[in-house]
Amino acid sequence: MITVWTLAALLAYVVAAGAFGVGLKSPREQLISWATMALAVGAGLQTVDLLLQALKAGNLPVATFAQSLALLAWITAVVGMVVITRLRLALVGAVVAPAVAIALAAACLMAQNDDRSLPRALRSAWLPVHVTLAFLGQALFVLAAGVSLLYLLKESRLKAKRPLEIPDSRLPSLESLDRINYRLLACGFVLLSLAIVTGALWAAGTWGRFWSWEPVELWSLVLWVLYAALLQSRLAIGVRGRRAARLTIALFAVLLCSYLGVNLLVPGKHGGSFG
Amino acid sequence: MISGTLCIIGLSHHTAPVELRERLAFSPGEVADTLLNLKRSQPTVSEAALVSTCNRVEMVAAASDPDLAQAELLSFLAAERKLEQHALRKVHYRLAGRAAVRHLFRVGASLDSMVVGEPQILGQLKAAYAQAVEAGAVGLILHRAFHKTFSVAKLVRKSTAIGAGSVSVSAAAVRLARQIFDSLRDKTVMLLGAGRMAELTARHLTQLGVESLVIANHRLERAAALARDLGGTAVALEHCMPYLKLADVVIGSAAVREPILTPAELHSVMRERLHRPMFLIDLGVPRNFHRGLDELENVFLYDIDDLGRIAAEALSEREQEAHRAELIVEREVDAFCRWLERLELVPAIKAVRSRIDLLRDHEFRRHRAWLATLLPDDRAHVEALVRGVTNKVLHQILSELRQLGQEPDKEVALSIAQRLLGVSVSAPGLPAPQEARRKSGSDPRG
Q: What does the alpha-carbon distance between residue A41 and residue A5 come to, in Å, rounded to a whole number?
């Protein structure tokens, strides 16, 4: 359901994305702080929007794909703000802001007059736990991909012997970016694991089966294995730096395709219809 | 006395050689006494501060007669340092008014520094100001001038990139190291060859916290001597390979005909160190590292030309920024000079105000007997009425007078204003004698 709050949040995200885009090239530090502020404002507005919708639904507003996409955008924006402020990594907003703007815009386009409520079978205390874990994990993977992009940007400038093109203060050292990427991946992996476990427990309680080889379950497992391999390869054979960044982005592409695929093409119990 | 002009005499690296600068320099302990001395012996100078750094010795002062004050300051400085005045005559500069304000602002913003944009000068100016305040040598004008200097410097630093960039090869190398590594504390630096520039870079890195240093050299004695000096391990150059996998930064400056490291060798080293990044700094000519090393992942190779180019780019960046900074300084100089000009008008404004006040009080006194017959309310009303009229007239005159201060031919305008109002500004702040006498009498309004 689209409200004034949704549209206001979308506008703020679009402004943030634009300001980050321009600010990336401009030497003016001010633009970046304005962009960060716009992103924060967008997240704030969407918080109000989602709270109102959650009160109305009596649970997380995830009855339709559009709603769950909007929720995912919000979680990504919030986690993005945490990374920006805690790690002083404002430029990650250049990835987060367009991502959430596109996600929320898509959610708005798909929402239309869809005012379905959640099926009775899914109205459970498990729902917020499972969905929050899963979405938080996905948000961290978005951010890991964003940080990886920044790593590649910085690394390519250093390799090209043109380090002055990005002011030193804009991005932390390669070593930090690499470490931040690793931590985001590790946290995302833990959350993904917990989401799978809680999903299985909830399914066992509702349908009497832990696992039913649904598309989402299948792809979650595939992604779990892939992310586990990425994390393990760093420790075992030192996949770090450029290679780790590229693999993080590649894995994110797989995540994105599977997310869109299972939600739009072959929706199972997880999909928009919650059949 | 409030009014006055900022004036500066001094010499700097632009005008005087280091031999002379060091003879003139004042240690921090001497500054207070010198300023007290100055206050005792030179009455023309109403406020003063002494700035003494390795690049400049300057006296910043406020005085109503800048020419005289400058001459006095010069002879004072020469006498203090037991130099002949003529030794200073050729190498010193004297600035007054606008030029002095601009100079002070430029010095603070590090536009007059030997390395433009270096940050130390601001701290030195702050210290000089604090010493002058402590010596009781600072008044209204210098307080404001120094505070303005500090805020201009801050503004310049905030809105331009004048302090950015590394202007030497070793500084560029260190800057790059910080772009690659997060903390240098837990890193190992390895020197292949112990050349002068490699030593300088290593010294720079140890100052930033590098604790682990390996020095490999053809001549082991030289490596050992440097290792003792900087705190590290010395090895012979031909036995350096086992240490390589520990090194995060490798500085090559050995005299070699063939590159020391081949891509294949480094590749296996990288595998051993689990591909943790490695920064290779090649300061050798001929070069110590094969160009192909740069192709390896997580290896960053910069040779002396790359570093030189970065240093030069940073320098030209600074020059461009300096131009922007000059514009900021010029704007602030304007603002400060306007303030000074208004300050010059303060005596005139005071004179006009007291002149009108006295006229009014005089009239009250003349009608004291009649006023006494009125009811208290009516009396208050009459007094308010008269005061209202005079204040309105005064306001009009004073705002015109403030305007006059901004105009180019203000001298002429001021003298006309003085004649019209019957006040003299040459004896600032004092009304005409007969009125002064009346004012000292009992309050006519009572």
A: 11
Are A104 and A166 contained in the same domain? no
Backbone angles phi, psi at A237, to 5 degrees: -120, 15
Q: What is the ipTM of this complex?
A: 0.84
pLDDT tens string A16-27: 999 998 888 776
Q: Inform me whether the pLDDT recorded for B438 exceeds 50.
A: no
- Of B240, B199, B201, the closest CA to residue B217 belongs to B240
User: Sheet holding B56-63: strands in order across?
Assistant: B45-52, B56-63, B5-12, B93-96
Confidence of residue A178 (pLDDT cuts 50, 70, 90): very high
**Interstrand relation of B5-12 and B56-63 (parallel, antiparallel or unpaired):** antiparallel
* Dist. CA B431–CA B222, nearest whole Å: 82
Domain annotation covers residue A274? no
- Does residue A253 share a domain with residue A133? yes
Structural domain contains residue A255: yes
Tokens of B264: 């294949």
Distance (Å) from the alpha carbon of B170 to chain A's nearest alpha carbon? 15
A26: left (phi over 0), alpha (psi -120 to 50) or beta: beta
Task: Say if residue A141 is in the same domain as residue A261.
Answer: yes
Task: Tell me the CATH number at B180.
Answer: 3.40.50.720
Helical (H) or strand (E) element with A46: helix A29-57
Partners of A174 on chain B (C-beta within 8 Å) are 179-181, 277
**What is the distance between the alpha carbons of residues B80 and A52, in angstroms, rounded to a whole number?**
79
Q: Does the pLDDT at position B266 exceed 50?
A: yes
Domain region containing A182: 124-268
Amino acid identity at B353: R
Domain of B364, in residue numbers: 343-439
End-to-end CA distance of chain A: 20
How many CB atoms are closer than 10 A to CB B295?
Answer: 12
Domain final residue pick, A118, A137, A171: A118
Structure tokens at B223: 């490596």
**Is A273 inside a domain boundary?**
no
Q: Which runs of consecutive H residues, i.e. helices, occur in B160-219?
A: 169-180, 196-207
- Dihedral sign computed on CA atoms, order B295, B296, B299, B301: negative
Chain B residues with CB inside 8 Å of A232's CB? Answer: none
SS3 call for B188: strand
Q: Are residues B9 and B115 in the same domain?
A: yes
Domain match, A36 and A21 both: yes
Q: Nearest residue of B to residue A27 by CA position?
A: B161
Q: Does the annotation mark B54 as catalytic?
A: yes
- Max CA separation in chain A (angstroms): 61
Identify which has the larger pLDDT, A274 or B359: B359
The single-letter code of the amino acid at B310 is: I
pLDDT (tens digit per residue) in B356-392: 888 888 888 998 888 889 888 888 888 889 888 888 8
Give the separation between CA B96 and CA B8, rounded to whole angstroms.
6
Asked whether the predicted pLDDT for residue A137 surpasses 90, the reply is: yes
B275 closest CB neighbour out of A158, A159, A240: A240
Task: Specify the number of domains making up chain A.
Answer: 2
CB–CB contact B179 A159 (8 Å): no
Residues B30 and B134 both lie in one domain: yes
How many domains are there within chain B? 3
Do the beta carbons of residue A234 and residue A247 sit within 8 Å? Answer: no
Alpha helix (H) residue ranges in B82-139: 85-89, 98-108, 120-134
